[in-house]
What does this fold into?
Amino acid sequence: MKGEPLSLMGSAARLLKPNGKALFSTYFPLFWEYRLAWFKGQADKKLLGEIDYDQTKNGVIVCKDGFTAKTFSGEDLAKLGEASCQRYEIKIIDNSSIFLIITKTPAMKSE
It folds into this structure.
């Protein structure tokens, strides 16, 4: 996610129609080696900076040019879902991705 995650969730929720859905994904922890290999391939092709292996760990990939890619845990996504004040669910797909699905709650009608 680029920018502050909670602000991004709020913006997405505001833009949705009632019952509309916004999906955010991150990598499942078991997918770490594949993700790191993909980033290494991108760095080898000079599409991003060289990976700083001393700084790369715990779900965060750091490149020597300053680029950082953070993996969110399922717990991180659940906290963001709670903070969105909308209905949300967390889904794990094929042990490779975790999705936060936010569904905009319809506004209550005043009497």
